[in-house]
Amino acid sequence: MSSVMPTYARIDLAFERGEGPYLFAVDGRRFLDFATGIAVNTLGHSHPHLVEALTEQASKLWHCSNLYNIPGQTRLAERLCAHSFADKVFFCNSGAEAMEGVIKIARRYHFNKSAPEKFRVIAFDGAFHGRTLATIAAGGNEKALEGFGPAMDGFDHVSFGNANEVRAAITGETAAILVEPIQGEGGIRPADTRFLKDLRAIADEYGLLLLFDEVQTGIGHTGKLFAYEWHGVEPDVMGLAKGLGSGFPVGAVMASDKAAEGMVPGTHGSTFGGNPLAAAAGNAVLDVLLEDGFMDGVTKIGAKLHADVGEVAARHPSVIESVRGQGLMVGIKCKVTNLDLVAAMRERSVLMVPAGENVARMLPPLNIDENHVAEAVAALDDACGALAP
Fold first, then answer.
1. How far apart are alpha carbons 99 and 105 in whole angstroms?
2. Number of domains in the chain
3. In angstroms, rounded to a whole number, what is the distance separating the alpha carbons of residues 17 and 23?
């Protein structure tokens, strides 16, 4: 029996190396990776620029404390701010940590304004914000909360997409509104522009902070560096992780000066967050994503993937109910079980990942080409044919 704690229902498959969008199992089989560690491997595997950047940094300095200046961290923060709404960035190691930081900033903001009674956050049904005690409470999923009660107080849940319910949920204790521009674990459920604009207006009207969770959508997955850019709606605070290090653990809390004004020395910290290796990984990812034309290429290849998957869905209506998402986030809502589709794709050497609402996700690297799309779509067509009643 393994000494690893059995918190995962692991598939009997192990990989020993990766190259581009492919993973190679220990038995030599090759898989097209359209799961990418759940939207993590932004540039696939063994990307030469990332390998070079991390190797160079590893030969010089892995870690030092945030008690000292870390030049690579400063550069990464400046680049993220230059290409976003944010004025300040705090670095951590994961999406859950990032969202904890987002929630802490919302509470601290009102404390700093002599309103400590404002601590509650309005969140949405179907959300996922992490696995800590605070973030499972923010997500509100009963399965995630089971056995870890009582749920941390401070979160009120309303229907995703319903601004009227948001207004009705506001009380004198409300501090912020927390939303994913696309619910990832919830089943690739995009928020529409009108809804996000309404949330911005409501937050401004009531003096609340608008918090975005872009842990899964951020760093290019929708065809822009951040998903909020498609809507013309800027948050006050935003959490990032997953793709920021393309596989190296890097998380970030991004905030406007207004939202972050209460975050003074001693209010938050991280031992490993933004250390020299993490900063090198994040900067190397941005080197590629910020190249002229790169994000336009993501939008183009994402449109092709959606169109081609849509054609498969039209041919197999007994297997696929609908296709949704944006850019290189593709949600396939199934009529068979999503786990059956994911397994059938794995049998055809393509990796996908399940999500809520019986959705199977395609989350490929951002640097795939049309040949990779054709390979995945051919496998999907064949898998649907095999699963059709």
1. 10
2. 2
3. 6
